[in-house]
Specification:
Largest sheet: 6 strands, antiparallel
Strand content: 15-25%
CATH topology of the domain at 25-137: Immunoglobulin-like
Shape: elongated
CATH architecture of the domain at 25-137: Sandwich
Number of helices: 8
């Protein structure tokens, strides 16, 4: 009787000791290799045999979604990849894999991984895979043959012909741009074209007579209003006074122009009192037409033009041509 009781006790103790393995499913959690170098990769494999308690009659099998960093120093490069192995149309083994890596040397304990077994009745059983240990080693440095070297000087390459031609072309281009800008500024100040030879400028009396003759042929006093006609006529005379004696007639009134001519008469004998009086009459008629709304007759208009032509002709400065 005593021996029978002892055998029962031994059996119960053995069952109690095996119960954790049954409840945990006798699952396997291993690494392909327990140590790697920094930056290497290793597969973490988790296997659940078919004879595990609770694996039959399940509806779905799920792993928790892994974070990018499993634990400090260890990263997951892939999600949990689950494979089911069937034999004779019956589930034989569950296999899950995760690709791991590490960029810091040291020893790491990977946290446990839960497996969720969902049954048709809605209940969920959780099986835990024990996390293995991973050792990450650095590449050993051979200090026996180490030799320190000084800083190398900056490497210099010889100058090629292409670089010389490029620099010369750039300098020529900049010199050409500078010369063009200087030429444009100088020619504009002298009122000359930028390129090509400048046409010889007509003497003041020739330029004035050409303009007055064009007005006579076109009969501008009939084509334009009286104010416009006398504006063109007096401006032609003003340009002649500026070019002939240097009088700033374009900025002066008619009275101021006559006063400037009176001063020039002391130096230039060609400016007689009759010539100045003749010009003053023409300017007076023009002022009445431009500012007093006076409407001269066609005869007065032609007379004003004749007075301007006579003034230019009588005061023209003719230079004798010199032969080489």
């Amino acid at each position: 009787m005593y021996g029978f009781v002892m055998r029962k006790i031994i059996v119960l103790v053995w069952v109690f000791l095996q119960l954790p393995n049954v409840l945990t499913g006798q699952q396997t959690s291993v690494l392909d290799k327990d140590s790697i170098l920094i930056g290497d990769q290793v597969w973490w494999t988790m296997i659940l045999p078919q004879n595990t308690t609770g694996i039959t009659g399940i509806e779905t099998i799920e792993f928790k979604e892994l974070p990018h960093v499993i634990t400090e120093g260890v990263e997951a490069l892939s999600p949990v990849m689950l494979d089911s192995v069937y034999r004779k149309k019956h589930l034989d083994t569950l296999k899950a894999r995760v690709l791991l890596t590490s960029f810091d040397s040291g020893s790491y304990r990977i946290p446990d991984m839960p497996l969720y077994l969902r049954k048709p009745d809605g209940t969920v059983d959780t099986l835990w895979y024990k996390g293995p240990s991973l050792y990450v080693n650095t590449i050993p440095v051979d200090t026996t043959g180490f030799q320190a070297f000084g800083l190398k000087p900056q490497m210099r390459y010889p100058i090629t012909m292409a670089e010389i031609l490029m620099a010369a072309g750039l300098l020529l281009f900049l010199a050409g741009i500078t010369w063009l800008i200087v030429r444009i500024v100088k020619r504009r100040k002298k009122n000359l074209p930028v390129f090509g030879l400048s046409r010889p400028k007509d003497p003041p009396h020739i330029a004035a007579l050409k303009a007055l003759e064009a007005m006579r042929k076109q009969k501008l006093w009939k084509k334009q209003t009286v104010k416009q006609y006398y504006t063109v006529l007096t401006d032609t005379v003003r340009v002649y006074l500026r070019d002939r004696w240097g009088i700033q007639a374009m900025e002066q009134t008619s009275a101021e122009m006559i006063g400037s001519l009176d001063k020039k008469a002391t130096e230039d004998p060609v400016l007689t009192a009759d010539i100045i009086k003749n010009l003053e009459d023409m300017l007076h008629t023009g002022d009445l037409a431009k500012f007093a709304k006076y409407t001269p007759s066609d005869t007065e208009n032609e007379t004003s033009l004749d007075q301007a032509v006579a003034f230019v002709t009588q005061t023209a400065l003719v230079e004798e041509e010199k032969e080489d």
